Amino acid sequence: MDRGDLLTAMKQCVLDGDVEEAARLAELSLRQGVPPIDSVEKGYVQGINEVGRLFEAGDLFLPELVASADAMKAALEVLKPWMEKAETGRKVIGRIVIGTVKGDIHDIGKSIVASILVANGFDVLDLGVDVSPAAFVEKASEFGADLVGLSALLTTTMPVQREVIKALREAGLRDRVKVLVGGAPVTGRWASEIGADGYAEDAIRAVSVVRGVLGLP
Ligand code: B12
Asked: Which of 85, 118, 140 is the last residue before a domain boundary?
């Protein structure tokens, strides 16, 4: 299968919610030497984006959405170690705590961002989903985080990003911990409005934004 066909098949298996096929194609892409981030962004993510559009239009329902997310996650499970390995052998250049905010269980995008940051030399503590402002503060302090990454996929959970910033300020951590926000509904404008230090629209851009925010060369 050539690379174009492979990426199209990856998109299709997410649309079909085909978990086995998603994992099989991920294995195949590794054997063919396709960079894992390309398989994710140019293959599987295209499928889940299309699923989002169909769901919004009412052409597809929650069980199908869940099946597509499961297929996406099966592929990520195969690709994650390889994404994180891409640039190993370098020393840790920063410590990051990342998570999806309270009330929100979307974790696909956040997990991709976490893996790409690991691959680029950051030590990343992933707190998972539905993380309270208090938990972000506690873990950022314990881990000695330079930066906290907050993911929100729902318009109703975006305001929790602001609450986390407030909680960091109240705990006296805000001047040493930078805050980066992301997630499909989040914008640069929202980031400035809530007083975050930065925003990135995807995982690749997150790396350069984090470097910029932390003042790394
Ligand atoms: C998959 C999915 C689900 C899966 C999630 C599975 C999982 N484990 O994550 C399931 C089925 C569980 C789900 C549930 C729900 N979902 Co949903 N879901 C989606 C869908 C289709 C795709 C999300 C996704 O994974 N995208 C792919 C990834 C790669 O993209 P991403 O998340 O945007 O991440 C990228 C960037 O945003 C960025 N990024 C992400 N996080 C961060 C963090 C930082 C720090 C940075 C810098 C960057 C960054 O980088 C990532 C990689 O490039 C979206 C549609 C959409 N357009 O987003 C709807 C969507 C988000 N869901 C929606 C809804 C309504 C729901 C439910 C309420 C449905 C219901 N009735 O129960 C529940 C909510 C449950 C909850 N409390 O959270 C709506 C939200 C509408 C709104 N206005 O808020 C959407 C937009 C669908 C729609 N069009 O209506 N969902």
From this structure: 85
CA 79 to chain centre: 14
CATH of the domain at 48: 1.10.1240.10
178, 127 Cβ separation under 8 angstroms: no
Summarised one tens digit per residue, pLDDT across range 183-199 is 999 999 999 999 999 99
Strand-pairing partners, residue 131, are 101
Residues at CB less than 6 angstroms from ligand 1: 45, 48, 51-52, 55-56, 62, 65-66, 69, 103-110, 112-113, 149-151, 153-156, 180-185, 200, 202-203, 206
Query: 176 with 120, same domain?
Result: yes
Q: Are residues 157 and 137 in the same domain?
A: yes
Please state the atom number of ligand 1 nearest to the C-alpha of residue 204. 53
Which pLDDT tens digit goes with each residue over 97-117?
999 999 999 999 999 999 889
- From ligand 1's centre to the CA of 4, what distance in Å? 26
CA of 53 to the centre of ligand 1 (A): 11
Nearest ligand 1 atom to alpha carbon 110: 41
Q: Largest Cα–Cα distance in the chain?
A: 55
Ligand 1 mutation pick, 54, 106, 127, 177, max ligand atoms within 8 A of CB = 106
* pTM of the predicted structure, to 2 decimals: 0.94
Phi, psi of 62 (to 5 degrees): -55, -45
Quick count: other Cβ atoms within 10 Å of Cβ 204? Answer: 14
